Amino acid sequence: MGMLISKCRSRGKEVKALEKEIQVMKREREKETRVHEEKWEEWEVEKEKHMERIRSLEKEVMEFREDKGWIRMGSEFIVEQLEEKARREEAVEKWKQLYHAIKTELDHLILTTHQGERFYLGEQGEMVERLERELKAKEEMIEGLRRSLTGMQMEGMKKDREIDILRQSLRILSNSKRSNLGRKSTRRSLRCRIIP
């Protein structure tokens, strides 16, 4: 009987050690979640800035309505930009859903373990191994999400550069068009003076 009590105590210590490990894992996950949520908020702010830039570019393009070819080209560019934006938002939404699904599953797993579902003697090692495999798989998924988010941010910066180049080209074209109109009007006034 004393042997059975000592086995129970040693198993109880093992369970407590496992619970401590789970608590540590839970704290790390919560920290990662906070960091992710902060980055998500930063991304939302940047996204809003990009939307404002797109709106201002659309407004600039609409100011040049007199030139039909330019409008056609500008509207095609705007359509491409809007489609690209929709694709990016869809991808981000999918990653967001995946992240929340993983987080929910981890939270559920931590809660059920913490609430008293104890491991049985024969299953204890298997349960720990399974949890470690799941943890590793989920960490890899989170890392993949981070890489894809970084890629999207780089793509956004590249698009911003392209928008800046297009805006400069638009200014150059508008300035050259205005200067050409000014030259034509001065030539006409000179002809009128010479002819009479």
From TrEMBL:
Chain coiled-coil ranges: 15-67, 121-155
Organismal lineage: Eukaryota, Viridiplantae, Streptophyta, Embryophyta, Tracheophyta
PANTHER family (alphabetical): GOLGIN FAMILY A PROTEIN
Name of the protein described by the UniProt record: Golgin subfamily A member 6-like protein 22
Gene that encodes it: LOC120272264
Keywords for this protein: Coiled coil
